[in-house]
Fold 25S rRNA adenine-N(1) methyltransferase.
Amino acid sequence: MPRPKPPRKPLSHTRPPRFGPPPATGSPTLSSKHARRLIRAHHALHKARARALAAATTTVADADADAAAAVADLDARIARAGGLPRYQLASRQGQARERGGDASRVLVGWVAGVEEERRRGRRGGKSRSLLEVGALSVANACGRVRGLAVTRIDLNALEGGIERQDFMARPLPAPGPAGDADRFDVVSLSLVLNYVPDPVGRGDMLRRTCLFLRRCAGESDGRGGDGGTEADAEGDGERRLFPSLFLVLPAPCVTNSRYLTEEHLEKIMGSLGFRLARRKLSSKLVYYLWVYDGSSKSGKEARFGKSELRKGSNRNNFCIVLK
Ligand SMILES: C[S@@+](CC[C@H](N)C(=O)[O-])C[C@H]1O[C@@H](n2cnc3c(N)ncnc32)[C@H](O)[C@@H]1O
């Protein structure tokens, strides 16, 4: 008579981790969890480096050596962890999968109606241009919109078609119409602002986007719009969508920060001359389209420091400072 099978043991929840070499750079086996850990560690090291760097430039001479050594040590740790290339691959593989894909699809969804109308010739005129800062791939959704010319830059170019360039060092367009060819209808900062390790650097980056946006035609051709107003993507009127900044952040940067709320972000952006045209909140990310009209309500840029806006021990410290 056959013996009854012994009951199967439940899987242990305390199983030791599997050791072995980390997945090779570019490996499709990089798990979401691994990618998330790698991304967090990279951000943390960068923030520590920014703090050490600030200390190195502000401390008295004999402390300089220590601070400089701390920076060098952090550089070595960043390099040992695979540096920017590994972070980028983790972002491209793990994070993209986890958050449901390419963030530029949201931008395309917002502006596609306008472009479609243009294509059908009702508005006529030039094609649109996009400067994608922090581009990881040329194969994202914005690259497939007809009539949208995309310029891609990144600190480290992973593919052909992406220029290796620091946005903060990108040569500024010449003043006036002479610089128009070097300005864009849309600048995209998708998960780039949160890469900047310090609050002042974030403010500087936001401010710099204005310099690369085409001026409202109200200023250059006196017609009170960018070559006329655009019907927006949802057809809810004649609100302009260009020139604009597409900004994507991890949602907790605004939903759970001690120093930044959406209201505060709107004030910062308003002071730079932007108004909020579109917003989408997902479980992981927040997407914004900010239309630039080149002037703040008060007529001048305000200063925004670091002040606590929400209390609570479980908050993060994401902050934007406009000096
Ligand atoms: C998390 S990745 C985001 C990639 C992509 N935009 C997305 O939405 O998935 C951030 C990228 O921004 C790039 N980056 C950060 N600061 C930059 C700067 N000042 N100029 C150009 N690229 C920058 C980094 O090199 C990195 O590749």
Notes: Residues 253 and 318 are 6 Å apart (CA to CA).
